[in-house]
Amino acid sequence: MTSNGQTELETVRKALPAELAPRIISARQREDRWTLVVDGEGLDAPARERMEAQLHSALAPGGGDPAPAIAFMGERVRRRIIAIGSGKGGVGKSTVTANLAVALKRAGVKVGVIDADIYGPSQPILLKSEDLKPEAEGETLQPVRGVADIPMLSMGHLVAKGRALAWRGPMAGRALAQLFEANWGDTELLLVDLPPGTGDVQITMLQKFKPDGAVIVSTPQDLALADAARAGSLFDQGEVPILGLVENMAGYVCPHCGEASDPFGSGGVERAAGRLDLPFLGRIPLSHSVRESSDAGDPVALGDTPEAQAFHAIARQIAVAEGLAKA
Asked: Which residues does the annotation say bind ATP (predicted)?
């Protein structure tokens, strides 16, 4: 506090022109010298020099006092949020999310993962971080680091392994807010693994942390497609652009005889995308390697197999859609 009861930040802001004052983030005075942290967002080098001259003039007029020490903050990260939803459980949405995160990271995108499935978190297993616990600075969580050094947070990191959560909607909403409001640093794209359905978690996210886009995952069968359509309707109501549909568990090749079959049908998601006039992002085969790598916390997208390439192709389309890669 200054001698007249004002904070040092208030004192500095009152000494500056109205258009400049909000740029001052923090101010400290030690032995008559000011130390300032200034928001430099949107300012090129000449503009920063002009602002620095204004601050010198206001706080050290005539050069009589020590010139202020000024640190400009860099550009704020424009963090995008992509929701991965399905409307139905058991379609492999979490596996798709984990592999897309790895594929995006390999493509040079600074990606993070939020496991928003409060009651059934699986990302700690899929991204091999289930034994990690996030630290907190004040009330702000610090994400843990999973496979490929991907920052991530899940309720699975915050509760004892195997413990069931019997929370009503408001408690789930507050838990979700903690995950979104964590210190995500320079992460530029957050993938949000949503729980099945269209319940409290989805509604809370749309109201408080509106995604920039959504990806819908479904198997080819009609029942899964009906639930996926309901998930799409929820995003439409929330005015969230749907980036496209992914067909998971699309076809199976027997590793012994090589015969191909379609236990869940074939092409249903692509046809649905055509009917809805939405992009079809691609299909992921039903594969032992995807299942085994997921259980081991070693996502198949870390490699270059045909299954991995399917995830990489979808990830590239997402990165292009969000302006994080060139078409």
From this structure: 87-94
Tell whether 32 and 138 lie within a shared domain: no
Q: Is 91 assigned a ligand-binding role in the annotation?
A: yes
Averaged in consecutive runs of 10 residues, what is the pLDDT profile of the chain (327 residues)? 62 86 86 83 80 85 73 74 88 96 97 92 96 88 95 89 66 85 92 85 87 94 80 90 94 74 81 89 92 95 96 97 89
265 is in an annotated binding site: no
Containing structural domain, residue 277: 80-321
Quick check: helix, strand or coil at residue 245?
A: strand
Q: In Å, how far from its chain's centre is CA 178?
A: 13
Residue 268 among known ligand-binding residues? no
| Domain-embedded: residue 3 | no
Q: Check the annotation: does 251 bind a ligand.
A: no
Nearest to 208 by CA among 116, 95, 96: 116
Q: How far apart are CA 108 and CA 106, in angstroms?
A: 5
160 lies in the same domain as 280: yes
Do 152 and 296 have their domain in common?
Answer: yes
Question: Does 90 carry a binding-site annotation?
Answer: yes
